[in-house]
Design goal:
The protein is mainly alpha-helical. The chain has helices at 13-26, 30-42, 50-62, 66-78, 83-95, 99-111, 122-134, 138-150, 160-171, 175-189, 193-204, 209-221, 223-226, 234-243, 250-262, 271-283, 287-298, 305-310, 321-335, 343-361, 364-401, 410-421, 435-441. Keywords: Membrane, Transmembrane, Transmembrane helix.
């Protein structure tokens, strides 16, 4: 940070070199060893000392630091003009994954100084530049863009679109573009809408994806503001620009999928394109993408097998709606926050209840109960009818003989009343056998 003046720290070469020296000489940290050797080689903030620099770089290389191995090749190439040793170290560093080493090997072939090779070999050079570009090397990427735009090599046929994409990747690393986006963000946070709109338009039109999505968001939030400056729907325009980028976020695909789902203005509804956008968001691990695909399935739209194959869903579930529903909702739940209730968990619970109820009501037991329940009901009604009829006949016969039959509890009450009214069967009353009463008579 001190060497480059980054992350809010002012540039201070002297202090930076002190920290490099401390890390290298005291801790023997391989990164510090390499960094300190570079400043010693170049004399940046310290007196130049190639001998000490070479020793430190060899020590960092012995610790397996790829940049130090590449640095040794750079040393032999620039200071010793020993291309054999330079190639040896660069091949070793390339095997360790160094993009700089790949680029340097390409330079050897391009300059025609590669050991054992005769003359310049642009095809071999282009191959090494391509390897470096794939690992993010800026100069290698520019060389590839040049090869694609000219089309002079068999391995790089003319392809202007690829040339633009490679060059665009380098252009987006330009710090000045980052300053413009930063100004737009600052204006947005300060609610200076017109200023934010201006900066985001400038950066979005250069092809910066983050500026395009931010501008689309402003167009969505502030339609009254943006309609004064755009004759077309800027929300759709810049979200569509965003998804054409290799770095587009998943929510941009969801937005465009919604545009195709609902349809508006001059765009008709297109569920096929909507499903493609949702599937792309799902491929990026967005739970909403899986949820939206499941909703399309609920509405009766058959999701193409090609999309399901891209999502790596078992082909046996493609034609079985319930299984496909469950798979989509389960993935939705897996990619969402499982610590709280969310639409995915609720939808999955509802689906499982539906499956359970279907299994219950379509079982053999329920089938037979459903078949025989009318007969059982009729038999019960007939039995109840005959029971009530029998009771009614008994009541009628009792009335004919002198009174109704006693109800529950009446026979015992009647018998107890009769006992109270009738004398003792032995001819004695209760008082005659009471000792107290007999003594009173005497």
């Amino acid at each position: 940070m001190l060497f480059w003046g980054q992350q809010g720290v002012g540039k201070n070469l002297r202090k930076a070199v002190e920290w490099y020296a401390k890390g290298a000489l005291e801790n023997e940290d391989p990164v510090s060893l390499f960094d300190y050797s570079i400043v010693l080689f170049k004399g940046q903030g310290v007196k130049r000392n190639r001998r000490l620099a070479f020793q430190l770089m060899k020590k960092a290389s012995s610790k397996g630091f790829p940049q130090a191995v590449n640095g040794l090749g750079w040393y032999y190439h620039n200071f010793k003009r020993d291309y054999g040793k330079a190639a040896k170290y660069w091949l070793k560093a390339e095997a360790m994954g160094s993009p700089d080493a790949s680029f340097n090997l390409g330079v050897l072939h391009l300059d025609g100084v590669y050991p054992g090779a005769t003359g310049r070999n642009r095809t071999m050079a282009a191959g090494y530049f391509y390897k470096a570009a794939e690992k993010g090397h800026m100069e290698g990427t520019l060389h590839c863009a040049h090869f694609y735009i000219t089309g002079n090599l068999p391995s790089f046929p003319r392809d202007p679109e690829k040339a633009v994409l490679w060059a665009k990747h380098v252009a987006e690393k330009n710090g000045y573009l980052g300053h413009v986006i930063q100004k737009g963000l600052r204006a947005y946070l300060e609610l200076s809408w017109n200023e934010a709109l201006l900066y985001y338009i400038l950066s979005a039109e250069t092809g910066i994806e983050v500026a395009q999505t931010n501008l689309a968001h402003i167009c969505e939030e502030k339609p009254n503001l943006t309609n004064r400056y755009f004759s077309t729907d800027c929300v759709r325009k810049y979200y569509n620009f965003s998804i054409s980028q290799s770095t587009a976020p998943s929510f941009a695909y969801l937005k465009v999928g919604d545009f195709y789902y609902y349809g508006a203005q001059n765009q008709t509804r297109d569920l096929n394109m909507s499903a493609r956008m949702y599937a792309q968001a799902a491929l990026m691990g967005d739970a909403q993408g899986f949820f939206n695909l499941a909703l399309l399935l609920e509405e009766g739209y058959p999701i193409p097998s090609s999309l399901l194959d891209r999502l790596e869903i078992d082909s046996t579930a493609h034609s079985r709606n319930m299984s496909l529903h469950q798979e989509l909702y389960e993935r939705c739940w897996n990619y969402s926050n499982q610590d709280s209730v969310n639409p995915c968990s609720l939808a999955l619970l509802y689906l499982r209840l539906r499956i359970w109820s279907n299994n219950i009501f379509h079982s053999d037991l329920i089938y037979y109960l459903g078949c025989f329940s009318p007969y059982l009901l009729v038999a019960f009604v007939i039995w109840r009818f005959w029971s009530l009829s029998a009771v009614a006949r008994l009541d009628n016969s009792a009335v004919a003989e002198g009174g109704p039959l006693p109800r529950d509890g009446e026979p015992n009450q009647r018998r107890s009343a009769e006992r109270e009214a009738s004398p003792d069967p032995n001819g004695f009353e209760e008082d005659s056998i009471n000792p107290q009463h007999s003594s009173s008579r005497s």
